[in-house]
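Task card 7
Instruction: Convert sequence to structure tokens.
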Amino acid sequence: MITTSARTTVFDIDGTLCFDGRTIDRRILAAIEDCERAGHQLVFASARPVRDLLPVLDEAFPTATLIGGNGSLVSVDGRVRARAAFEADELGRLLAEAERFRAGYLADGPWDYAYTGPADHPIRGRVDQGGLARRVELAELPAVVKFLVVDATDLAALAEAGRTLGMTVNHHLDEAIIDFAPGTTNKWEALSSLGIDAYNAFGNDINDLDLLRNARHSVRVGAHPGLDGVARVTVTAEPEAVAAEISRLAAAPGR
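Output:
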């Protein structure tokens, strides 16, 4: 558990703050600095593992709390820990379904990863950009905290198979990938486990649904239809618009 602030703001990364998979626009960084100066406790919550959050943040906001793997990993004061992982039998059933649909995947451990997808898949450009980890065989990972399918013969059927197994499944139709997490793990659940129950949130995708739904003040970036009616504010997925909304939040009394 961490010490919470009455002014906590949680930011998703990809599609919310980062639009090229690698960097955050300087205007957005400056606006987040405004929030920090205004007394906001910063949290970055992403589908990326913590390992892949660090190069994007590029040493900015070193005291921020990080949530990775859609809630399966947390980093507080620079210490990374897995707070949810697939049980051995659960992973075995998922791997059997992945084999049935001839799936290529990215499996993340607490730090290292295994990858069996196409060498030229766009996801490869977002994995271990900082060269901080090792690519290993799946069996070498001490635990699997996230399982991302990047191709399969029938993505929709594989996603449904994961739901039937009781996993958290986010099927990103726009990217043709499926994100599997153990049990009911999500960003909001990870926040709650850290003692954070009052916060503002920025997100853009279906894996931000509970994060936005339970926020005191919520901002949808872009127009994902799965978030219709969930967020209080919607802004366009452009750095200038996002930075302006963050600055408005920083200047708002009591938020």
